[in-house]
Amino acid sequence: MARVLVTGTSTGLGLGALHDLIEAGAQVVAHVRRAEQLETVARSLGTEVPGVVGELADQAQVRGVAEQVAALGGVDAIIHSAGTMDERLVLPVNVVAPYLLTALVPAKRHVYLSSGMHRGGRLTASQLAGLNWTVGGSLVSYSDSKLLVTALAAAVGRLRPGTWANAVDPGWVPTRMGGAGAPDDLEAGHRTQAWLALGKDPRTHTSAYWHHMHTQQPDRRTGDVNFQDQLLAALERATGTRLE
Ligand SMILES: NC(=O)c1ccc[n+]([C@@H]2O[C@H](COP(=O)([O-])OP(=O)(O)OC[C@H]3O[C@@H](n4cnc5c(N)ncnc54)[C@H](OP(=O)(O)O)[C@@H]3O)[C@@H](O)[C@H]2O)c1
Q: Ligand 1 in contact with 13 (CB < 6 A)?
C-alpha cells in the first residue's frame, strides 16, 4: 500500500486529504509547521500518524523535513498542500518548498496544489531570473505563485519519465484560506489529491492539470518549455539544489 506525505495537514485541504488516504487504507506521513499540531491532527483523524515538522518558509527547515521523511523510510507520493496567500511568503512557501521537497524526497507521484487563480498570474519567462525568492524578497501575487507551481508540476512531468506530477485546482472551498462563504464542496476539494497520490486508477498515471477528477487545460505558459526552464534555473540558483 502506498505511503504518502501530505504537507500542511494542521487544517484545510491537507487534513482532508489525510482523512481520505487513511480511509483508503494508505499509510501517511503528516507534515505540520509545529510539533504540537500533530496532536490536533491525531484528534481529527482518530489515530496517531507519523509526522514531520518544519516551517516551509525556511529552506533549512524544508531540508529538515526531507531528512525526517528519509528517516521514516521515505514515501511513494507527496501531496504539496501547504500554502499561503501572504505576498511576502508566496514564493518561498508555495513555490520554493515544493521545489526543494521534489528535489530532495524521492517519490514516484507528486500532487501540487494549484488554483484556478493561476490564470491571473502576470509573470513572464524573462522576469523569473530577476526574482528574489526569500521571505519578503519579491512581492508577487498569490496567482503568480500558483502559475509557477503549476509550471513546476509540468516540468517535473516532462523531466522525470515514469514520475506522475499533477497539479490540482481544488475549487474555492471553505477552509481557513477559502473562508466560510466559499461556494465549492470541501470534500470534492481534497478527493482528487488523494486519488492521484494513491495512483491505483490508471487514469492517474499521467502528468496533467485537474479539477474534481477531470483534466483541464491550464494557462499555456505552464506548458512552455522556456518558461519551465527559466523557472527551474531560477529555483536552482535560489536554493543551490538542482532538480534532477
Ligand atoms: N481553499 C481554497 O479555496 C483553495 C483554492 C485554491 C487553491 N487552494 C490551495 O490549496 C492548498 C491548501 O489550502 P487550504 O485551503 O487548505 O489552506 P489553509 O486552510 O489555510 O491551510 C494551509 C495549511 O498550510 C500550512 N502552512 C501554511 N504556511 C506554512 C508554512 N510557512 N510552513 C508550514 N506550513 C504552512 C498551514 O499550517 P498552519 O496551520 O501552521 O498555518 C495549514 O496546514 C494551498 O496551497 C492553497 O493555495 C486552496
A: yes
What's phi and psi for 207, nearest 5 deg? Answer: -125, 110
Given its phi and psi angles, is residue 212 left (phi above 0), alpha (psi -120 to 50 degrees) or beta?
left
Establish whether residue 193 lines the binding site of ligand 1, counting it when its CB lies within 6 angstroms of any ligand atom: no
Which residue's CA is the nearest one to ligand 1's atom 43? 8
Provide the domain limits for residue 232.
3-239
Q: Is 175 in the pocket of ligand 1 (CB under 6 A)?
A: yes
**Ligand 1 atom with least separation from CA of 92:** 31
* pTM for this model (two decimals): 0.99
| Sign of CA pseudo-dihedral 191, 197, 202, 203 | positive
Q: What is the CATH number of the domain that holds 96?
A: 3.40.50.720
Is 170 contained in some domain? yes
Mean pLDDT of 200-209: 97
- Mean pLDDT across 70-80: 98
**What's the rounded Cα separation, in Å, for the pair 24 and 199?**
12
Identify whether 9 is part of a domain: yes
pLDDT of residue 175: 98
pLDDT in tens, 102-129: 999 999 999 999 999 999 999 999 999 9
Of 126, 101, 117, 131, the closest CA to residue 31 belongs to 101
Q: Is 115 near ligand 1, meaning CB less than 6 Å away?
A: yes
Residue 244 lies in a domain: no
User: pLDDT, tens digit, for every residue of 164-181?
Assistant: 999 999 999 999 999 999
- Which of 6, 15, 19, 33 should be mutated for ligand 1, with most atoms under 8 A from CB? 33
What's the structural domain count of the chain? 1
